[in-house]
């Protein structure tokens, strides 16, 4: 039960930043004989559940991989659907974010998204800027290799010394701690061009659960598993 799982979580050893590769929407729908879009819509329920759960437990930052730079290769109808869903989500969620003191930010090349969505992101992140309970980072049109190349270009141009710390300042995540825990749903054992620099020492958690079935219980299980790990960061 959720209550029992929550009680098992050690609040003094919470991951500060959880990043999630939300995968399996299409398979979830296929299993039910439904079009893939139904899986994406059902995935929104899980998005809401994990945000709420992180906030309740006290996780400071949550990154959700919502649309990769490679996802443009999908059929136009699916891309259109995902963009509409994102737009609908941003419209509906503002009130919820404000009430729950959550700041929305994004990682990725937002300039490549439809203009309407760019404006919505700008508005929601601006209006939630002062919210301090938690940061919700949506990875949109995000690709890690592209991010690193752009960071290198920025660093070279700045003429600063080429160090890890300085390079990090040119990544989308410059204001965030690196993820402590990276979760991927749906049983795929891949990183898929996601936060390659930032996950150098993240704990990885793979679950067969498809994203639309990923509940608060599943998130708590991942956190409990994370808390059993010994993090040595290369030391003894
Ligand atoms: C991967 O499942 C999921 C995506 C590419 C999109 C994720 C989007 C959502 C959960 C909904 C929108 C999110 C927000 C934040 C508004 P897949 O389609 O690759 O599944 P499959 O591997 O089973 O085909």
What does this structure look like?
The protein starts with a helix and ends in an 8-residue tail after the last helix. A six-stranded parallel β-sheet has the order 3-4-2-1-5-6, sandwiched between helices. Helices cover 45% and strands 15% of the residues. It has a single domain, classed as 3-Layer(aba) Sandwich (Undecaprenyl pyrophosphate synthetase), CATH 3.40.1180. The protein contains eight helices and six strands. α1 packs parallel to α8, α2 packs across α3 and α4 runs parallel beside α5. It is globular and about 55 Å long. It has 236 residues and is an alpha/beta fold. The chain binds farnesyl diphosphate.
Could you give a quick summary of the protein structure above?
The chain has 236 residues and is α/β, with parallel strands linked by helices. Helix content is 45%, strand content 15%. It has helices at residues 2-8, 25-31, 36-57, 76-99, 115-127, 144-158, 164-168, 216-228, and strands at residues 17-21, 61-68, 102-107, 134-142, 181-184, 203-206.
CATH class: Alpha Beta
Helix and strand run = HEHHEHEHEHHEEH
Low-confidence stretches: none
- SS summary, helix count: 8
Q: For this structure, what is the CATH homologous superfamily? A: Decaprenyl diphosphate synthase-like
Total of domains: 1
Q: How many runs of DSSP E, i.e. beta strands? A: 6
Integer-rounded radius of gyration: 18 Å
Strand content: 15-25%
Shape estimate: globular
Class from helix and strand fractions: alpha/beta
Distance between the termini: 36 Å
The CATH topology turns out to be: Undecaprenyl pyrophosphate synthetase
Which range best describes the helical content: under 10%, 10-25%, 25-40%, 40-55%, 55-70% or over 70%?
Answer: 40-55%
Strands of the biggest beta sheet: in what spatial order? 3-4-2-1-5-6
- Quote the average pLDDT: 97
